[in-house]
Design brief:
The chain has one domain: 3-Layer(aba) Sandwich (Rossmann fold), CATH 3.40.50. It is built from seven helices and seven strands; from the N terminus they run αααβαβαββαβαββ. A seven-stranded mixed beta sheet has the order 3-2-1-4-5-7-6, with helices on both faces. Helix 4 links the parallel strand 1 and strand 2. Helix 3 crosses helix 4. It starts with 6 loop residues before the first helix and ends with a strand. Bound molecules: S-adenosylmethionine.
Length: 199
């Protein structure tokens, strides 16, 4: 089991984040944008991993759309909140770095909402490799994070550096966009659809 603390854990952000999403959801705000895009990438009843699931909103929305979803999240407080908010959601207190290839195969891994910029320092390529290793034969990864003005305690991760790390981790860029509604790529936010690079 990994002992590296994520930037998220170092920042102690779970309270604010969990509260903010709980308020948005109870106010009826749309928090399903990532899940809608993920759903369009999938056959019905697909197997999905939500990696860094937070309080479970994306995993729950994909479960409601009929997919077989597993969520992992290392922040104990967020796992608790996910279980309270979405009873029955399969969520494990677990780090991406602790994934095993036998946890797969998944049709899709979602890793959205700034997970990538909150990984523990220096673990980006290992984490991307761990996500690649749980993909099924035609599996894909949906990833998205802020390129500019990163949230508190998150790193700045330029798109070119991220794409170099993807290549080093054996991943191929199938599509890059600027939003989860697939607006053109821009400098503010990055959304990528990835698959395993050919050997
Ligand atoms: C801004 S929150 C986003 C949560 C969720 N994906 C969402 O969009 O609602 C960032 C999340 O990344 C998670 N994270 C950071 N490093 C991680 C790692 N190595 N493995 C799994 N999750 C990680 C944090 O624990 C935190 O829940």
């Amino acid at each position: 089991m990994t002992t590296r603390r994520t930037r998220w854990q170092e920042a102690g952000r779970s309270g604010n984040f969990g509260r903010r999403f709980a308020e948005l959801i109870s106010a009826g705000e749309d928090v399903d944008g990532e899940a809608r895009l993920a759903d369009t990438l999938l056959p019905r009843g697909a197997r999905v991993l939500d990696a860094g699931a937070g309080m479970g909103r994306v995993a729950a929305a994909l479960g409601q759309r009929g997919h077989d979803v597993v969520a992992i999240e290392p922040d104990e407080a967020l796992v608790r909140q996910a279980r309270e908010t979405y009873p029955g959601l399969p969520i494990e207190e677990r780090d991406i770095l602790d994934l095993d290839p036998d946890d797969g195969p998944f049709d899709l891994v979602v890793c959205v909402g700034n997970v990538i910029v909150y990984l523990a320092e220096g673990t980006e390529r290992r984490a991307l490799g761990a996500l690649r290793d749980v993909l099924g034969e035609n599996g894909r990864i949906l990833v998205g994070f802020q390129l500019q003005d990163p949230p508190p305690h998150a790193r700045t991760y330029p798109a070119a550096e991220f794409e170099a790390d993807l290549a080093a981790a054996g991943l191929r860029v199938d599509l890059r966009a600027g939003t989860y509604q697939l607006h053109p790529a821009n400098d503010a936010y990055g959304v990528w659809i990835l698959s395993r690079a050919q050997d």
